[in-house]
Amino acid sequence: MSEQLRLSALLAHPENGGLRVVAGPPDTAWADVVVESTEAELPVTGGERLAVLTAVPPGTPWQQDALVRRIRDRGFSALAVPAADAFGGGTRTLAARLRLTLLHVDTPMALAKACWQLLEARDALTLAYVRKVAQSIEYHADGLPDLLRHLTSSVGHGLALIDSEGVLLEAGGHLEPDVHAAIDFTPWVDVARAGSGTAASVRVDSPSREGLRIAFFGDGLSDSQLSALAVAAEVAMPAVAARILIDEVAAVNDASVSSAVLRDFVDLRGAPDPEVERRMLERGWRTTGYHLAFRMSGRTRVDTFQLLRFITGAFAAIPADSHATTSGRGVSGWLTFSEPPTPEQVESYVVALHELHLTASRSFNVATGVGSLKNGSVGLTTSLGEAADAARLAANRSATGWFVRVDGLGLGQLLLAWTSNDTFVPAARSLLAPVYDAGHDLLVTLAAYLDHESGIAATAAALGLHRNTVSTRVQRIQELLGVDMDDPEVRLALHLACRTIRL
Amino acid sequence: MVRILEHAHLGALARGFALLGSGGGGATTMLELVLADGAGWPFDVYDIDELDPSLPCLGAAFVGSTMLLGERLPGEAPFDRLVDAAERWLGHEVPVVCSLEGGGLNGLTPLMFAGSRMVVDADLTGRAVPGLDQMSLLVDRLPGVIATCDTGAGGVMLVQTDRPVDLERVIRAATIQAGGTGGTVFAGFTVGDLLEHSIHGSTARAFELGTAFDSAAAAPLPELAAALGGRLLGHGRITAVDPDPRDPHVNAVELGGTDGQVHRLITRSETLAFVTDGRLEAAAPSIIVVLDAVTRDILEVTELALARNVVVIELAPPEWWTRRSERMRHIVPSAYGLAELDGGV
Q1: How many CB atoms lie within 10 A of CB B92?
Q2: Are the C-beta atoms of A126 and A232 separated by less than 8 Å?
Q3: Is the model more confident about A412 or about A294?
Q4: pLDDT computed for residue B283 by the predictor
Q5: Nearest CA-CA partner of B207 in B14, B13, B25, B39
Q6: Of chain A residues 105-144, which have a CB less than 8 A from chain B?
Q7: N or C: chain B end with fewer CB closer than 10 Å?
Q8: Are B254 and A89 in contact (CB under 8 A)?
Q9: Helix H segments across B158-301?
Q10: Do A88 and B242 touch (CB under 8 A)?
Q11: Nearest Cβ partner for B278 among A58, A69, A89
């Protein structure tokens, strides 16, 4: 018979009757298998075959020794019997010494069936796998990982969703990197081997994601097992592809709902609202405790949903209760602590957020702002606001790598950032309009005068003018604006307006 | 030919009977001490054909726990009451004494009678055995054999039966009543009966074995085995002692052989079989001697403890047993319910 029955393939078979290696050579193959109830019924010449006995062997060590001896003397190279795991050290040593692979099996008939499938009935093996795939699709899955778990527990081999970079999701084991490297991503069906690791993979036709494959994998699977598993993967593939799509739709929907909740919360500005509170708690968002907010917004157009997915995926690296959702043209998020973190801890979290920003920058054109640590419901709103302001600033700060943290800002900068919004700029324009209309020189003089603490001499020196010229201009500005420049309130308003206009 | 046993021969004789004990039969030390202090040396030991076949004969032995015998010392004349009872029942004196069990301490027991009766060099087993129904006279179903034994507190019991197993069970029960150990005396047979129904020359064999052992004890193992006329079965370290799941008296002692073999000694009250790598190498009635590989002490089965380094030597079985298959039935391992161990001869 050309097809060999490998021990590794039998061990990898999900229904091998509880087969375990007890002693003897672990890597071995046989041309055939003989199944009998007792040793006496076995053929006299074993011929390097596997002997499976269904009756429980004798209980005394010398009888077990004798059984091992006689099986080997008949030429069999392996023996599978029930209760072999109770064989003592001496019998195990003897089996190894005689080069007889001693196997324990709970249900010998199941092992016999597995041998038959591997040796002679590949179609039966394939059909058994396909039926199991069909059975697992029948059950409700919460998501793609759940579906993969269903499939793997039903089929009995590990299952991984992979792309050419690596494993995206896996269940029922770990797909070794060398096996992954051996998988060819071009063909529809591929069978890969690397060392003892084996995998049968099929391309996933998904409209949203390209270059995906699902792979059934296991140690030491034989060719017949792999080709059967490839068919099983082909059958499972549409379910996986559909699930990817369903999960994506569900995730987009979820993001838009959570975005709305956050917007409602921010709009309340810390005022208590039981309805919003309830919706936030449903999402696991606590307003009590201490919060450190951040915002990552696109400097150019970014797919906020993809960005959110990336960020939530990267949250695993940050050891804190972390949340995020899409908001406008970016993603807002925050870390929540029930106890106030120490300044060192806060710093480490900011570093982690900076790392997050750096990794995100590789795939998305983003600017990130981080707020300060604040307490309670109002604090969360404040921190989120700060983060938004900082992100807005960061969008113009290539020097800081498009990353700005509020605690690291001058208050003036923040004020300035705040005044550069849509409501203040027109107001500033109209306030300064008379001066603006009268000529550029007056505006420059006013700005310099306010910058130099209303000092005529300093202003003149800065502008390279005669002090009389400056004093005349100031007087004229005062007339044009019709305000009292000695009033500090007036001076502040004018000063900010000048800065805003200049921007 | 009359053999004259000198006082100086006692040690070698005891060693010989210890070897014939096949790991059982009890330590000879106690009887060595009793006999060493006794009077009447040197002793005469007669071969069977030197005595008138019509002379009545008796056999004596200690039965029960041989370990208890070391704790509860036998009295000055432990067999007197038993012999008196037997003679009264038979109605005549019994002038000849033989051994019941030609292995272990009972090999020396007839010498306790040397001052008063003729000691004949014959015994009923040729090795140590656990059951009284394994005595050659009973195995051959010789009629008229009676037995007396201690029942404790000076009591004596006499058993006459045609069913050997009754004799074994009743005396065993009486011995338990007597505190776990006691004496027993067989009578009702003659020297002539011993010709066909006993093992001849055990004392001579023990003396030869003991002398050979004493001279070769320090020699290399193959040399020692050859000196004893035996076969070296194996040498190894005890790696496991597995009690039999069905019979708590049976142990399988696993030896890790010096060349990697897996040896097993199957023991009950004596060593019964020796298996190497799943193949039966020796079995009762062969005498399987276990020696400490370092000190060359002759070991009893109770001394086979984990990690002890031991040597196993097979000595030829008494030919009386192997001559007939119905005799073998009473002595091979399957007589004790142990399967797959017969046929080691």
Answers
A1: 9
A2: yes
A3: A294
A4: 94
A5: B13
A6: none
A7: N
A8: yes
A9: 164-177, 191-197, 202-216, 221-227
A10: yes
A11: A69
Mean pLDDT, chain B, as a whole number? Answer: 92
A 54-73 residues inside an 8 A Cβ radius of B: 58-63, 65-70
Nearest to A368 by CA among A351, A343, A346, A344: A351
Are the C-beta atoms of residues A89 and B239 closer than 8 Å to each other?
Answer: yes
CA-nearest residue to A87 within chain B is B242
Confidence of residue A1 (pLDDT cuts 50, 70, 90): very low
Q: What rounded mean pLDDT belongs to chain A?
A: 84
Helix extents (H) in A364-466: 376-394, 411-419, 424-438, 440-451, 456-463
Q: Which pLDDT value is given to residue A46?
A: 77
**A467-481 helix and A456-463 helix, angle to the nearest 10 degrees:** 110
> Is pLDDT of A3 > 70?
no
In tens, the pLDDT along B284-334 reads 999 999 999 999 999 999 999 999 999 999 999 999 999 999 999 999 999
What angle is formed at CA A18 by the lines to CA A16 and CA A22, rounded to 5 degrees? 110
Residue B344 binned pLDDT confidence (cut-offs 50, 70, 90): low
Chain A residues touching residue B343 (CB < 8 angstroms): none
Put simply, the answer to whether B277 touches A65 (Cβ < 8 Å) is yes
CA distance B65 to B302: 12
The per-residue pLDDT for range B105-159, each reduced to its tens digit, is: 999 999 999 889 999 999 999 999 999 999 999 999 999 999 999 998 899 999 9
- In this predicted model, what pLDDT tens digit does every residue of A200-254 receive, in sequence order? 988 888 777 788 888 999 888 888 888 888 888 888 888 888 888 888 888 888 8
- Say if A320 is an interface residue toward chain B (CB within 8 Å): no
A335-359 burial string, b = 16+ CB within 10 Å, else e?
bbbeeebeeebbeebbebbbebbee
Cβ–Cβ below 8 Å for B275 and A94: no
Chain A's closest residue to B264, CA to CA, is A62
Which two structure tokens, joined as six digits, stand for A43? 């053929």
pLDDT for the residue numbered A358:
87
| CB-CB contact of B284 with B273 (8 Å) | yes
**Tokens (6 digits) for B183:** 């004496």
Instruction: For the full predicted model, state whether its pTM sits above 0.90.
Output: no
Structure tokens that stand for A2 in this block: 């050309």
Numbered residues of chain B with Cβ closer than 8 Å to any chain A Cβ: 239-240, 242, 244-246, 252, 254, 256, 260-262, 264, 266, 273, 275, 277-280, 338-341
Specify the DSSP class assigned to residue A229.
H
Q: Is the pLDDT of residue A140 over 60?
A: yes
Cα distances from B334 to residues A470, B164, B283, B328, B342, in angstroms, run: 130, 18, 10, 10, 6
User: Where in A54-125 does DSSP place strands (E)?
Assistant: 78-81, 101-104
| CB spacing of B261 vs A91 below 8 angstroms | no
Label each residue of A128-182 as H, E or C.
HHHHHHHHHHHCCCCCHHHHHHHHHHHHCCEEEEEECCEEEEEECCCCCHHHHHH
Q: Which residues of chain B does A68 touch, with a Cβ-Cβ cutoff of 8 Å?
A: 278
Highest mean pLDDT among A263-267, A407-411, B86-90: B86-90
Q: Please tell me which of the candidates B242, B262, B341 has its beta carbon nearest to residue A94.
A: B262
Q: Please indicate if any CB of chain B lies within 8 Å of the CB of A38.
A: no
Q: Are the CB atoms for B98 and B124 separated by under 8 Å?
A: yes
ipTM comes to: 0.86
* Nearest CA-CA partner of B342 in B277, B289, B275, B243: B275
Q: Do A97 and B277 touch (CB under 8 A)?
A: yes
Q: Which of A39, A56, A62, A73 to mutate to test the interface with B (most CBs of B within 10 A)?
A: A62
Structure-token pair, residue A154 = 């039903």
Contact between B95 and B117 (Cβ < 8 Å): yes
The helix or strand, by DSSP H or E, that contains position A256, with its residue range, turns out to be helix A223-268
